[in-house]
């Protein structure tokens, strides 16, 4: 699934290519991607045609494109989530349709195309959502957001018995950090993902947060991480940060820091990758015959 750097790359592309151009037509070629617009595809089209996108914004893995407002109140917005395979591509009119093209927005001589092979992503109109769509108001800010509160994050992590990796993936605590960048951040901070937040001091939690920022900024500089043709920017170009990954997907390869073989373990129907020397797993001990505790 695209994570924060990949979504930010798309946001920047949209900002550069689709703003201030009236939407003159919309074709909904498959209903599933607009299923979250409960009034239906025809209403989706009617509410958007004639408007222009005036900005491109992001919170975590969600994108939204505010529309020009008709009156004094807050404007509406096109809200988008890429799901596992969604793409927002900018193409000239007349370019061949992509195999999994689902929604087409006509912008004069340009088209914005929503392409989604697996169709877990989607588009909807967020009424009054120009500043922040209410549908995603519960999602926390991400570490690259200037408004992110580091101190509050540290306090919440240290109050929890959950493993630090589970907390990094909790979108109500911090958004935009997915499986790939969580593993990379934890490796940078030398912290095992199963270490409970309550067993970390503030400096270690901050090291994890700094690691997340470091790896995501590096990924942004390289266009994101593209493991296959599904993860591309608005021009269809792949990122190449996958060449710089230190632990994710590196099972059996030597850690670049100490030479120990990288290990993979199951985690929440996915996988976690770590260096057992740089990131020693927490010890499990039985106390007085009760359930084990983690240290």
Helix and strand topology:
Layout: H1 4-17, E1 25-28, H2 41-48, E2 57-59, E3 62-66, E4 77-81, E5 86-92, E6 101-107, E7 110-116, E8 122-126, H3 150-159, H4 164-168, H5 179-189, H6 202-221, E9 263-267, E10 270-274, E11 284-285, E12 293-294
Antiparallel strand pairs: 1-6, 2-3, 3-4, 4-8, 5-7, 6-7, 9-10, 11-12
- How many strands, what sense, and barrel or not for the largest sheet? 4 strands, antiparallel
The number of distinct helices, counting runs of at least 4 residues, comes to: 6
Proportion of residues in extended strands: 15-25%
Low-confidence stretches: 225-233, 237-241, 285-295
How widely separated are the two ends? 32 Å
Count of β-strands: 12
Shape: elongated
CATH topology assignment of the largest domain = Helicase, Ruva Protein, domain 3
